Amino acid sequence: MEKKRKALIIGATGLVGNELLHRLLDSEVYVEVTALVRRPTGLSNMKLNERIIDFDEMEKAVDEFKVDDVFCCLGTTIKKAGSKEAFRKVDYDYPLKAAELAKTSGASQYLLVSAIGADPTAKVFYSRVKGELESALIALQFDSLHLMHPSLLLGNRDEFRTAEALSGILSPVFSPLLRGRMARFKPIKAEDVACAMLQIALDGEKGTNIYEWPELHEAAARRA
In angstroms, rounded to a whole number, what is the distance separating the alpha carbons of residues 61 and 10? Predict the structure, then answer.
């Protein structure tokens, strides 16, 4: 019998986060799911503990981090954020602060939606910020750190993104051509990333683990 667990999710109103929140609430393993959000999710569930916060003052919600597993699905674009500084706040400062609070509160697992190509030495600003965050998270030494490296995410977004829209149209044609080492660049559905994250959390693999398309696809298939 699996141990009953508590989860916290930030970014629950985003593309992957929304899919993941529903799956966490449906899971028999999680008895309580806390969602830290800027705006209401619109969901009503006995297991859901929804708290609207100012992410610049995340430490005020420190008591909410007394959980087993923390899922971070925060992410934006420079265009949507308005500047590189604003982008870094959402994609670096907030996820790192959440990890620090989780670590000091005793959480054993931290799961992050990062990105393919994350590298602290990358010339591309987006990839460099993602890589710098991963390096900072590794330094915290969680029992289990899980880094998702999806390529283009497919799903229904609140805002239009040209690359994702084109990828959704072309994916059935080009995805089968991406084989071997190139398979990591295949677009992936947000719902598959969410399924994979839940399965990975339940697997509880120790240490730092990175998941690209092949591993995400396999984990999602096991959860389906």
Answer: 12
pLDDT for residue 21 = 97
Scored b (16 or more CB within 10 A) or e, 181-195 reads eeebebbbbbbbbbb
Taking the C-alpha atoms of residue 189 and residue 97, their distance in angstroms, rounded to an integer, is 28
Contact 221, 193 (CB under 8 A): no
> For residues 50 and 64, is the Cβ–Cβ distance under 8 A?
no
The string of DSSP letters for 184-209 reads GG--EEHHHHHHHHHHHHHHT--EEE
Tokens 């240490």 found at: 207
pLDDT, tens digit (0-9, with 9 covering 90-100), for 129-171: 999 999 999 999 999 999 999 998 987 755 545 555 555 544 5
Please name the amino acid found at residue 100.
E
- Contact indicator for 12, 18 with CB cutoff of 8 Å: yes
Backbone φ, ψ for residue 154 (5° rounding): -105, 140
- CA–CA gap between residue 97 and residue 126 (Å, rounded): 19
The residues that are catalytic are 126, 130
